[in-house]
Write a structure and sequence with these properties.
This protein is an alpha/beta fold and 375 residues long. The chain has two domains: 109 residues, Rossmann fold (3-Layer(aba) Sandwich); 250 residues, Dihydrodipicolinate Reductase, domain 2 (2-Layer Sandwich), CATH 3.30.360.10. It has 14 helices and 19 strands. The structure holds L-homoserine.
Length: 375
């Protein structure tokens, strides 16, 4: 396999290092803005050098973001090259475009590292679907949020201090919005649901709430009720209808989700034959992520192309009603739905997920967390 590597940042450099000692693949060109000297690959600033090199059969996209990543990946596939990527935003947003194009061009398109970093989550989800129906995917998919929530829970520190620590350790970006507003988790949930259910979820029908407004006093309230707050993603299918959402959720202390420490991920599926399977590990970082990129390259070499046959477009309808913990704002509509107080915060009677997220949109300073569903 002759690889054109796009990007030489955290993931790109990791891929380069993991590929270097291998006999079955070689990085021959690297697209990079900097002037780099590499031992065994030519560095270029011009993507056309990779696109028009007929000896390059596979493009590894590690530049991230939507553009120009999408345009590069489309051009690569149109030139008959396989694509391997860790870019969850691009895969989630352009799923409808990228999968059919790969099928039409007869090239491989793989993105295992886009969800769960070094965890073989998507590739196993693909295998699960060979013999069973998946009814649920979801869990803790963002290491930065888990680190912040775990630090606040363990030490009592406030959100700002926990975020600063996450930034100092290199987990959170200087602008942490994508992580703390739940967008990163939202992308990962949509990809997981698409692969697990064989559909294409309408992104705009999937509500998302993040952790930006959580305070130390909220954590105290959760502790007093034996709960741990996690940013959870959930997607379910039942009898042809689909639900999906991302929101802070209270997990009873002692459950698997409540016990996930620092920046780890815990991602779960429910299948009709195997039951619950949970995947735990490093959801980010140079070598865990590069590991799954290289695994995907090996799968391409062995003829394992994309994850699933491209399915129908699906709009999510969240019929479930949940009780919510709400702090940081209130109004008459919320008070009307109040069941009790935890400290100064409101706990609602069961309300629709749609209603709660709409209310949150109108109160951007508020924090919400769903209470666990009684099973
Ligand atoms: N920013 C992500 C996280 C890592 O914190 O989990 C890349 O998916």
């Amino acid at each position: 396999m002759r690889i054109g590597l796009l990007g030489f940042g955290t993931v790109g450099k990791g891929v380069y290092k993991l590929v270097a000692p291998r006999a079955d693949m070689q990085v021959v060109r690297v697209l990079c803005r900097r002037d780099l000297e590499l031992d065994d690959a030519a560095v270029t600033h011009n993507f056309d050098d990779i696109l028009n090199d007929p000896t390059i059969d596979t493009v590894v996209e590690a530049i991230g973001g939507l553009h120009p990543a999408r345009e590069y990946v489309i051009a690569a596939m149109e030139h008959g090259k396989n694509v391997v990527t860790a870019n969850k935003a691009m895969v989630a947003v352009y799923y409808d475009e990228l999968l059919p194009l790969a099928q039409r061009m007869g090239v491989h398109f793989r993105c295992t590292a886009s969800v769960g970093g070094g965890i073989g989550w998507l590739s196993e989800l693909e295998r699960v679907r060979r013999i069973e129906t998946v009814s649920h995917v979801g869990g803790i998919m963002n290491g930065t949020c888990n680190f912040i929530l775990d630090s606040m829970h363990r030490t009592g520190m406030d959100y700002k201090a926990a975020l600063a620590q996450a930034q100092a350790l290199g987990y959170a970006e200087a602008d942490p919005s994508t992580d703390v507003d739940g967008i990163d988790t939202w992308h990962k949930l949509i990809i997981s649901a698409n692969v697990g259910f064989g559909v294409s979820l309408d992104l705009n029908s999937v509500p998302v709430a993040g952790i930006r407004n959580i305070q130390a006093s909220d954590i105290e309230n959760f502790k007093a009720h034996g709960m741990v707050c996690k940013l959870l993603s959930t997607a379910k299918q039942q009898d042809g209808s689909y639900s999906a959402y991302v929101q802070p959720t209270l997990c009873p202390a002692g459950t698997l989700e409540a016990s996930v420490p620092t920046n780890y991920n815990l991602i779960t599926l429910s299948g009709n034959t195997s039951g619950r399977q949970s995947f735990y590990g490093q959801g980010a970082g140079r070598y865990p992520t590069a590991y799954n990129v290289v695994q995907d390259c090996i799968d391409c070499l062995r003829g394992r192309g994309f994850y699933c046959s491209y399915g129908k477009k699906v709009t999510v309808i969240n019929k479930l009603k949940l009780s919510y913990y709400v702090s940081g704002a209130t109004d008459d509509a919320l008070e009307e739905r109040k069941a009790l107080n935890w400290g100064d915060a409101v706990v609602t009677r069961p309300v629709s997920i749609h209603w709660m997220h709409q209310w949150l949109d109108a109160h951007p300073g508020a924090f919400i967390a769903a209470l666990p569903v009684e099973e």
